[in-house]
């Protein structure tokens, strides 16, 4: 049997913090029971916020490659595409190219 239960008292995470400590404190406060074999899931967004790994898209300037890709994938913001290029390229940011209607990294 699978049961999904969430913590209700987790504070809003808006800055870098010790997320494991916050979760432990909340678990204790709510008398939340964890048993052998339980799986604890934490959303990647809350982890990113706690680590300070957040990018303000208003500060991102898209390159011509990001704009080309956005023309093919119009549902994505070209600034988000630029962030993806940054996160998937080598340190020189030169490994991605646009060829045969495909982005190649």
Give a short account of the largest sheet. 2 strands, antiparallel
Strand order of the largest sheet: 1-2
Number of strands: 2
Structural class designation: mainly alpha
In helices, the fraction of residues equals: 25-40%
Molecular shape: elongated
Radius of gyration: 20 Å
What's the end-to-end separation, in Å?
43 Å
Strand content: 5-15%
Oligomer: single chain
Notable traits:
single chain; 6% strand; mainly alpha
Summarize the structure in words:
The chain has 105 residues and is mainly alpha-helical. The protein has four helices and two strands, in the order ααααββ. Strands 1-2 form a two-stranded antiparallel sheet. Strand 1 and strand 2 form a beta hairpin. Helix 3 crosses helix 4. It starts with 18 loop residues before the first helix and ends with a strand. The mean pLDDT is 86.
Short description:
Helix content is 37%, strand content 6%. It is mainly alpha-helical and 105 residues long. Strands 1-2 form a two-stranded antiparallel ribbon.
């Amino acid at each position: 049997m699978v049961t999904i239960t969430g913590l209700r008292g987790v504070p809003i995470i808006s800055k870098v913090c010790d997320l494991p400590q916050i979760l432990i404190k909340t678990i204790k406060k709510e008398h939340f029971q964890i048993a052998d074999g339980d799986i604890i899931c934490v959303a990647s967004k809350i982890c990113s916020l706690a680590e300070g790994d957040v990018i303000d898209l208003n500060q991102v300037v898209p390159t011509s490659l990001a704009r080309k890709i956005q023309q093919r994938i119009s549902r994505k913001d070209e600034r988000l595409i630029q962030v993806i290029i940054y996160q998937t390229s080598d340190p020189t940011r030169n490994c991605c190219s646009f060829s045969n209607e495909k982005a190649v990294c």
